[in-house]
């Protein structure tokens, strides 16, 4: 992890450490949403958002609170939940 970000967006100048992140970023400028949910048809720019959305349909809740055992489908929701224990 050298901290270099050689992959540069030609539209806005934002730089990235790898070409994959640059290719995902390009969707911001094109509006392309290549990931489509087979259940409901919603479309997403990022694969991570698509995968997170799929858990809504499957009921998967992989993020569990170590204090009370409550589980969540998104890590950000678990992070917010942790505040009730402090």
TrEMBL record:
Transmembrane portions of the chain: none
Domain C2H2-type: 7-34, 35-62, 63-86
Pfam families tied to this protein: zf-C2H2
Compartment(s) where it occurs, according to its Swiss-Prot or TrEMBL record: Nucleus
SUPFAM superfamilies: beta-beta-alpha zinc fingers
Alphabetical list of InterPro entries matching this protein: Znf_C2H2_sf (IPR036236), Znf_C2H2_type (IPR013087)
Protein's GO biological process: negative regulation of cell differentiation
Species: Bucco capensis (collared puffbird)
Key word Phosphoprotein present: no
The protein's name in its UniProt record: ZNF71 factor
Ranges in a coiled coil: none
Superkingdom, taxonomy of origin: Eukaryota
An annotated GO cellular component: nucleus
Keywords: Metal-binding, Nucleus, Repeat, Zinc, Zinc-finger
A GO MF term: DNA-binding transcription factor activity, RNA polymerase II-specific
Source species taxonomy: Eukaryota, Metazoa, Chordata, Craniata, Vertebrata
């Amino acid at each position: 992890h050298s901290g270099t970000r050689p992959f540069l967006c030609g539209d806005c100048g934002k730089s990235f450490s790898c070409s994959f992140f640059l290719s995902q970023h390009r969707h911001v400028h094109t509006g392309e949403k290549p990931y489509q949910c087979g259940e409901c048809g919603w479309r997403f720019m990022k694969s991570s958002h698509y995968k997170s959305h799929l858990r809504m349909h499957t009921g998967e809740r992989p993020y569990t609170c170590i204090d009370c055992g409550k589980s969540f489908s998104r890590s950000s929701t678990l992070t917010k939940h942790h505040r009730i224990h402090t």
